[in-house]
Amino acid sequence: MELKVREALATRKLDIAVYGALAAITILAVAIRLLPMKWGIYLDEFDPYIQYKGAMYVVENGFNAWYSWFDPTRWAPWGAYQYQEGLLGVPFTGAAIYLFLQAIGIGVSLYNVAVFFPVFAGALIVILAFFLGKELVNRGVGLLSAFIMAIDPTSVQRTALGFFDTESVGMLGFFLSLIFFLKAQKGRTIPYSIISGLSLAYMALAWRVFLYPMNFIALFAIVMVLIGKWSKQLTTSISIIFSITLFTLAVTPSYGISLAISPYTIVPIAAFAICLVRSMTETIEDQRRRQLISLYIVIGLVVAFGALMLTGIFGDISGKFLALINPFSRAEIRSVGTVGEQFPSIWSHFFYYYHLLVILAPLGVYYAIKRGKRVDIFIVLLALTALYGAGSYVRLLILVAPTISILAGYALVRLMSSVSTVIRQQADRKVRAGLLSKYYGAFVIAIVVIAMIPVAYTNLRGADRPAMIVSSSTGVQASIPDWMEALAWMRDNLPPDSVIGTWWDYGYWINVMANLSVVDDNSTTNGTQIQLVAEAFLNNETISLRNFKMLNVTHVVVFEPFQPIMQSPPLALPPWQILGDFEKSTAMMVWVGYNSSEYIQSIPINLGGQILNYPLPAGPKAADATLYKLLFYPYISGYQHYLNITINPPQNYQLIFSSSDAWVLVYKINYP
Hints:
Layout: H1 2-33, H2 47-61, E1 70-71, E2 80-81, H3 82-85, H4 89-103, H5 110-136, H6 139-151, H7 153-158, H8 166-184, H9 189-206, H10 211-226, H11 232-251, H12 257-260, H13 266-280, H14 287-311, H15 319-325, H16 334-337, H17 347-354, H18 356-371, H19 374-392, H20 400-426, H21 429-463, H22 482-493, E3 499-501, H23 507-513, E4 517-518, H24 527-538, H25 541-550, E5 555-559, E6 563-567, E7 570-573, H26 581-592, E8 601-607, E9 610-616, H27 626-632, H28 636-643, E10 653-658, E11 664-669
Parallel strand pairs: 3-4, 3-5
Antiparallel strand pairs: 1-2, 5-11, 6-7, 8-9, 10-11
Helix pairs in contact: 1-5, 1-6, 2-4, 2-23, 4-5, 5-6, 5-8, 6-20, 8-9, 9-11, 10-11, 10-13, 10-19, 11-13, 13-14, 18-19, 18-20, 19-20, 20-21, 24-25, 24-26
C-alpha cells in the first residue's frame, strides 16, 4: 500500500513538473510574440490587412453577406468578388471572436482582436505541439516540440502580434487534425475522426496548405496497406476525415466541386478506395494470400488513378502547387519566382534555425525506421514530406519545426535508453541508481541546453522587430514614418474615387489603410493586370499612359528606401539589401520577359574610399523607363553630376507628395 502511495505521489509530482514546464514554455511563447508591442499595436506584413478588411465587412454586414461580397476597390477598374477570391476562415474567426467578446460585455475593438489573436493562436499551437509529440513519442518529446514551436522563427513571425493571417488559424487545424487522427487509430475511432475531419476542414477554410496534411494522411494510409499494417480503424477514420473535408471544399465558393474532385485530391480519393478494397479482402482467411491480393489490387488502383491523372480527366496541377511538387517547373511560373515567401529554402536555413537538432533528426529517422511501428512510419513520412515542402517554399518552414523537434526528441529518447541499458548492465542496484541520477540526467540536460541556447538566442533577436508598416517595409528595428505618412496623406487628401497604380506589393496597404481603389494587390490573382503595370513602369510615358489610362489610374505611388550619399546636388543610392521598387523592377522584368541588362548595369562608385561596382539605372532603356523617372526624380541632377547617369524627368506625372525621407512618392497623372 505504501509503495502504491509513493508511486502515485511520484506520478503526481512528474505530472506537475511536466505541465508546469508546458505552462512556462507557453508563457515564453506569448512573451516572444508580444515583443513587437513596444513599437506600437499594428497589423503586420501585408496580407493581414485584407483579412482585417474581411472581418470588418462581416461584422458590419453579417456572415451571410460574405457570400455576395463584390469589392469594386480591388483590381480596379474591374473589381473583385471577395467570396470567390478570398478564404473565409480568418475573417470569420476574427469576427466571431469580436462578436462573442461584445456579447459578454468585453468592449474590445475589432482591430485589437485582429492584432492580438495571432498571439493567442501561437500559444495554442505551442500546446498542441506538445500533445502531438506526446501522442507520437512521449511527454518529454512533447515538451521539446512545444519549446521549438515557441521559439521557431517561422512560427514566431506568423503568429506574432499583428500577423492576422492564414497560418494563425491554419496551424490550429493542422495540429488538431493530426492529433485526433492518431488518437482515432487507438480507440473511439468515429468521434475522434469527426474532430480530425472538422479540424482539417477548418484549416481548409483558412489556408490552402490544408492539401499537405490531407494528402499526407492519404499517403500514410496507402503505405500502411502496402506494408501490411492496415487496420479497420484506418479505413473508418480516413473515410470520415476525407468525407468532411471534401464536402467542405465542394460547398466553399473559393474552392467548389472543381477542387473537391481534382488532381489535388486524387491521392485521398485513391487512399479511400485502396482502404475500402483492403477491408473487403478481410474475408480471405489465408493471411499470405490476403496480403498478396491486397498488394496486387493496391498496385492496380495506383496505376489506374495515375493513368487517369495523366489523361487530364481531373484537370491539371498548375501555379505554385505545381512548383511545390515539381521544383523544376519553377522557372516557367512567373508568379512563383517573384514572390519572396515562395522562394525555395536552402539547407543553411535549417541549420540556422535548428542547429544541433538538424544533426539529431536524421538519427531519429534511423531509429524510427529500425523500430518500424505504425507511429514510427507516421513520424518518418511526416518529416520527409514536410522537409520536401519546405525545401520548395520557404514559407512552409513552419511545418518543419514540429517534425524536426519530434525526430530530434525521438533520437534523444533512444540514445538515453541505450545509455541507461549499459549502466544497468554494468552496475549493481545501489551504484546504478547513483550513476543514473548523476550521468543520465546530466547528459540529457547537456544535450538539450547545447542544442537550444544558440537556437533561442538567434530566434529571439529576430522576433524583436516592429510591424512592417512601422519600419516602412524595411524589416529593420526602427520606426520609420514614410509609409504611414503617405497612407495617411492619401486617405485625407486624394479624392475618394482615385485609382492608384502601384506595384502589387503595396496594394493591400493602400486599399485598406488609405481606403482607395488599387489596380493590383498582394493576392496576385490577375496576372494579366500585373503585366500591364509592369509594362507601364518599364517603358516610356507613351506606353505607361496608355496602360494606366486603360485601367483608369489617376495617381501612381512608388517606393524606394534611398540612402543619401551627397547633399548638393542631392544623391542617394537604392540599398539592394532592402527591396524597394528599383530592386523589384527585376521582378517586373520577369513578368513581361524583358532583359535586365537593358535597364540595370553595374557602375564603379566610391563609397567610403572603396570602389564598388554598384547596380544602377544605367542601361540603354533606363533613362526613359517611367518607374525610374518617378523614383529617381528628386536625384536626377545628382546622378548626372556625380555618376554621369542620365534619367529623364517625368513629363505627364506631377509629384504631389513626398514622405519625410522621400521614400514614398505620390504622383498625379496629367493625361494629355
